[in-house]
Amino acid sequence: MARTRAKDYDDKRDAMLHGAARIFARDGYDRASMNQLATELGVSKALLYHYYTSKEALLFDIIETHLQELVEAVEEADRPGAPPQERLEGLVTALLEAYRDADNEHRVQLSGLQLLPDTQQEELKALERRLVAIFAEAIRQMNPDAFDSRPLLKPATMSLFGMLNWFYMWFREDRGISRQDYAKLATHLLVSGVKELP
């Protein structure tokens, strides 16, 4: 008979992922051991191995879960029929909200993806491409003629991600600008430039 999954399996897994992301972000993936992870997570090594057969499997799950959450948040917020600037601002706001309490996961994604085997990297990059494609289409709507005649859409889209991906490095809750205000600012900066494209 197959072993049934404990009712709190997902909660324990989520706590392990969040804690492991904190440790990987703080110490670096290479320097963290499964022994250290188990100790700091407050679980036995046997229980950690019950969930994850290797440190690599844990790294993959941290990044995949994070990217899935980002994609889901952005897809849910997307309003293709809205005015272009409103649509883009909604996407930016959703992404910044999805980054809330995920600084460690975001840091691990940026630094750890290339440490995984090629097949796993490709799976994760497919999620990244899904996310980028939604933003790219919203940006294209701002000035279709400029983007359809020249290869500028990818640079413009990645410029926006450059503003958003490093947000966690300097942003502090309740100090200065809010997430919503930064979403408006980042959107305005991009839209102003895109609309000026000849």
TrEMBL record:
Domain of life: Bacteria
DNA-binding segment(s): 33-52
Family matches, as SUPFAM superfamilies: Homeodomain-like, Tetracyclin repressor-like, C-terminal domain
InterPro entries: Homeodomain-like_sf (IPR009057), HTH-type_TetR-like_transc_reg (IPR050109), HTH_TetR (IPR001647), KstR2_TetR_C (IPR041490), Tet_transcr_reg_TetR-rel_C_sf (IPR036271)
Entry coiled-coil feature ranges: none
Domain HTH tetR-type: 10-70
Pfam families per UniProt: TetR_C_24, TetR_N
Keyword line: DNA-binding, Repressor, Transcription, Transcription regulation
Gene3D superfamilies named in the record: Homeodomain-like (1.10.10.60), Tetracycline Repressor, domain 2 (1.10.357.10)
Name listed for the protein in its UniProt record: TetR/AcrR family transcriptional regulator
Lineage: Bacteria, Pseudomonadati, Pseudomonadota, Alphaproteobacteria, Hyphomicrobiales
